[in-house]
Amino acid sequence: MPPFANTSALESFRPLFHPRSIAVVGASASSVSGGNRFIRHLKAFGYQGRILPVHPSAERIEDLPAIRSLADLDEPVDYAYVAVAADAVPGVLASGRGKLRVAQVMSSGFGEIDGGQAMEDRLVAAAREAGIRVVGPNCLGVHSPRARVTFTERTGPEPGRIGIVCQSGGLGIDILRRGRGRGLRFSGLVTVGNCADVSAAEIVQYFAESDDTDVIGLYVEGVRDGRRLFETLRANSTKPVVILKGGRTDQGRAAAASHTGSLVGSDHAWVALARQTGAVLADTLDAFLDTLLVFQCLTPAAVPTRRVVLFGNGGGTSVLGSDAFSRAGFDVPRLPDDIVAALTALELPAGSSVRNPIDTPAGALQKDEGRLFPRILDVVGGSGALDALVVHINMTVVLSFRHVDMLGNLVDAALRAKADGFAPHLALVLRSDGEPDVEEKKRDYRARAVAAGIPIFDELASAAASLAGLRLVEAFRAGLDGQIGGRTVSRRSAAP
Amino acid sequence: MTVHEQIGRARAAGAGSLDEATGKDILASYGIAVPRHRIVRDSAELRDAALALEPPFVLKVVSSAILHKSDVGGVRLGLRDADEAAAALDAMAEALAAHGLSADRWLLEEMVPPGQELVIGGLTDPQFGPMVMVGLGGIFIEVLKDVSFRICPITRRDAVEMLDELKGAPLLRGARGRPPVDTDAVLDALMRIGGPDGLLMSHADALAELDINPLIATPRGAFAADARFILRPADASWSA
């Protein structure tokens, strides 16, 4: 039974995400170690609380007065960053008895290596004895922009509403940096490493309880407490959860004595968990980040997204896009006659198609300097004939019309439509050729669109896959009735 | 004797599994339909027992030592009357002897009417605890691995989705001119195995694996035609 068992996760992990004071065990007086870098990151990120380096002999570390031991603290600290050799960790925790709430142990050499489990057991015993919750070991730190706490650089100070639990330190940095580039904004990210004491499920519970967080992302490789995670996710019905699971492809259990045992692979449990909790399983880091972006920008609708309208320039791209959305389980239906008539009345230039996909050559878009597009948005937006509009723009082609800022007009029109309460989900695909000037423009538009709540993708296929995650959550919440045995069976009924 | 006592006794005796008759009794106590049956010790007893049952019959050897009965000629289906069943018992005893095996008990049961064969399975996963599986029988499970798993306890909605997920699901609805099967009976069986008060949740600490193979789903009812319970060693248990 861990300490704090009777308190909420919000209370237990406030010291981790919002520490009023931080002790650093393992910073050097003579070289630059992990602890020194952490102190520098804290300062650069603008941390306002007290930083207390712990060192057996040095007077000052990183220009801060050092203390000899956690035991010498005059008042308890919320959070300790511990980066010393594995065999010294239990002693550090013992010295923190009554002086420390949460320790994060970065050190490796525990359960992740052969023969390291005994050392991990000692760490857990020491933590329990001292009444300290331990995150890790074998991890990199915590990122909490609202508290101005971070463990790495180039993560961005902007606080957001996505909370991440990450079992890999390095991947945690990828998620922060690449996510930031896509427009993701985080409420927090914790690298949890081996989860010797604090489990992934407990941090998920924290994010589920926290008012700062709307969306939860989880990277896990192996969980010792899968059942607790399952129950935590099952109890969380309000916040979308995206899971990136590493190691989903091992074989079933060769030693099983039954059919059932020989058929089960490690993936079955995760697929089951996702189906039963409404979590979205992503297969790749890119899909994970794209899906998080969808949930950051879009609110799941009461009726699952099914009918998608594509609008953009490029006939081949429209066809491939339709295929991608169909494969992802969407309909790309022909628009109803009255909508087609309304679009035809806009007198789109030759070469346009208005049936869905709505395909307009770039040359046609320059009519009225791109002001045709807002009219198209007006016609389809209120039609009730679609659940999502995906606008895709071949940037290179559109940018070649240099005498007007057609791309700017298009993006502005989308932003205005969103601000005016455009009813269907709206997503934008900006297709670039990778040239620096085009990428530069894309970065600007991405920032503006995401800030306005419009998710931006590089390609239609990734838009389709990520929006499928949104549909999954919508369908799960709607608890749709299934068709089996040739008649409708309610899925809402309780156990017999 | 309660189910806990039955399973506990077998584990204490070092058994790795339950014999089919005990397994079916346990299924029946959880509300799963099983064919009516009698346990007999020889062909003379079989003739008496057959009077209380409706032919056609199925005859199986009862032994927790024999996990794969059909591999050693320990299963005979479609026996038309008591004479045929009695002859089958004697022939089976000889066949077993040729494999160096012997048995002192036999299961005589009514043959389940034809239907769609399914498999319901269970296991205790080291991370997630009890899990339940469903698939269609035959090539669907053997070749195509067309199965669906859930973590217990399942809701009825989970059970519906498990069946929906199977590629072979149209067969349950009466594809290829066959009558649709009694889906509610299959869902009931899934709930009784994997639901909140189901067999797996109640005995996660004692059961390692479970196969109901086949569960025969007919237009009226679903019947467990075989049951295999794999027990955990007496010193091992799973706890959440």
UniProtKB/TrEMBL annotation, chain A:
Organism per entry: Azospirillum thiophilum
Record carries keyword Endoplasmic reticulum: no
Name used for this protein in its record: Acyl-CoA synthetase
SMART domains: CoA_binding
Tagged with keyword Cell membrane: no
Keywords: Tricarboxylic acid cycle
Domain of life: Bacteria
GO terms under biological process: tricarboxylic acid cycle
Limits of the CoA-binding domain: 16-110
Listed transmembrane segments: none
UniProtKB/TrEMBL annotation, chain B:
Domain of life: Bacteria
A GO molecular-function descriptor: ligase activity
Keywords for this protein: ATP-binding, Ligase, Nucleotide-binding
Domain spans labelled ATP-grasp: 24-60
One Pfam family recorded for the sequence: ATP-grasp_5
PANTHER family the record matches: 3-HYDROXYPROPIONATE--COA LIGASE [ADP-FORMING] (PTHR43334:SF1), ACETATE--COA LIGASE [ADP-FORMING] (PTHR43334)
Protein name in the entry: Acetyl-CoA synthetase
